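Still learning. Any example?
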Amino acid sequence: MPALVWVDGSGDVVANNVGPTDIVNTTGASDLTIFSTGFPETTSQSQLAGDSHVGMNAMSGTAYFDDADESLGGQSEISLDRDDNSVLGGDANFHISSSGSANKIEVGDGNNTIDVGGTLNTVIVGGGANVIDVGGSNATILILGVDGSDGATYSDPDALGGGAVSSSSKDTVTIAGSGSVVDATYENVTVKGSRVTASSVLELGNGNDSVTLGGNSNGAVVGDGRNIINFSGANNMLQVTSTAGTPGTDTVDLGSNDGNTVNLSFAGGSVTGSGNGNSITTVTQDPIATTNLTVSLSNAVGQVTLGTGNDSVTANGNGSMVNIASSASPGGNDTVTAGGTAETVNIFAKTASQDSVFIGSHDQLNITGGVNAIMGTGKSGAGDANDNFYLNNVQNGSSVTVFGNSTMVFLGSDSSAKVTLGGAASKDTITVQADSSSGNYAGTVEISGCRSGQTIDFQGLAGSNGEALTSASAVFDNTNALGGTATINLSGGGKIILDNFTSFQLKELLFSDGTGPVGLV
C-alpha cells in the first residue's frame, strides 16, 4: 500500500520509503531529507515548499516534485545515483546531481544547478539563471524560456506578484564528449564545450551568447546579439540568424584548423583564424549587409563573400577567393590582403569609396568603382608576378603599383589611375580600352616607369583628332611631348600620360579593337 507522509516543520527525515507510489508533502518552509534505496520504484510525488534534500537510488523510476513557486525561495536538492530515472519539477530552485545515464530532468523557472554525468541524459529547464553541467556524450539540453515559451519573454505569470524572472538572466551550459544538443530560446547563454570531441549541435536564440567548442564537425546557430564564438577544431559550422533591421556584432575565433564555415547573415564584427591549407575556410555575409566586418585568416585558404560595409580581409592562402559587394549593391571602404598565389579578388565599390588591395603572384583582381590603391607582389625584384588587374570606373586618385614581371593591367569604363611600374619590373602590359565603338575614353591614365620591354595596348581607342589609334603614327599624331612627359590625347577627353618619356619603340605598342568594360563586371 502506498505511503503518504505529511511534513510540516523543520529537520524532518523520511527514510525507507520503499513503496512504489509513495507521496511526501511539505506545507511550509521545511528542511526535509528523504533517503531511500527503493524510492521510487515506479512513481512517487513530493510537494516541496522549502529547503529539501532527496536521495534516489532506483532503476527506471519517476519522481514528481510539484513544488511551490520560485518566489518562495529555498532550494530542493536531488541526487540520482542510477540510470533511467526521471525528475519532473516546477518553479523552485533545484540542485540536481546524477552519476547515471539516460536520466531525464525537467524543471521550471527557478535558478537551477544541474550536474549530470553519464551519457544519453536529457535536461529541460525554463527561464532563470541556470547552471547546467552535462559531462557525457549524446546529451540533450533544452532551455525553454519562461513558462516554456518559445521566445525571450521575461514576465512570469506564475510568479507571486509577477515578473520574478529577470531579463538579465544568464544560462551556463557545460558539455563534453560527442553528439550533444543544446537548444535555447532564452537570452544570454554561455556554452562551455572545450571538452567536446565532435559532432555537437547548438541552436541559440537572440541574445549575447558565448560559445566555446572543441573537436570537429560541430554546428552552432545563434541569433542577433553580441555573440562570442570560439572553435578549436576543423569542419565546424556557424550560422548567425541576424536580420537587416537589428544586425548584431559577433566575435568569431576559428583557431588554427581548416574547413570551418561561418555565415554571418547581416551581422558584422570579426572572424579570425589560421590554417595549413588542407581545406577551404568559408566566411559569408548577406550581399546587402551594411555592417563592418574584419576577416583575418592568415595563410588559410579563404573563400570570403561580404556585403557593403567597410570591411577588411586577409586571406593569404594559395587559391583564396574574396568577393566584396555586387554591381547592384556596391561596397564601402575596403582593405584586402591576398598575398598568396592563384587568388581571385572581386570588389564592387561605390564611386567615392576608398579601397586598398595587396596582391601576390598569379592572382586576378577585378575592381569596379572607388578610389583605389592597388599593389602587386609588394617588393622590388619579386620575379614573375603574372597578375591580371581589371579596373572599371575607378576614380581619379587611384594608383596601381607593380613590382613583379609579366603583370597585365587593364583599364576600362573611363577609369583614371596612376600606374607605376616599379623596381626592375619588365614585360608588363598596360591596356586602355575604349568604352564603345566610338573610340571614346574620358579617364586619365598616367604611366610611370614605362621602360624598354614594357607594353601599352591601345584597345579600340581614337585620338582627340578623331583618328583611330591603330598604328604608331596615329599615336604620334595625337601626342604632345613637354619636359620629358608625353601626353596622348584621346577622343572623349581622356588622356594617357607617360612620365619620363624619351621615345616609343614599335614593339612596345599594341593595337586591338576591343571595347567596353574589362574583365568581370
About this structure: The chain has a mean pLDDT of 84.
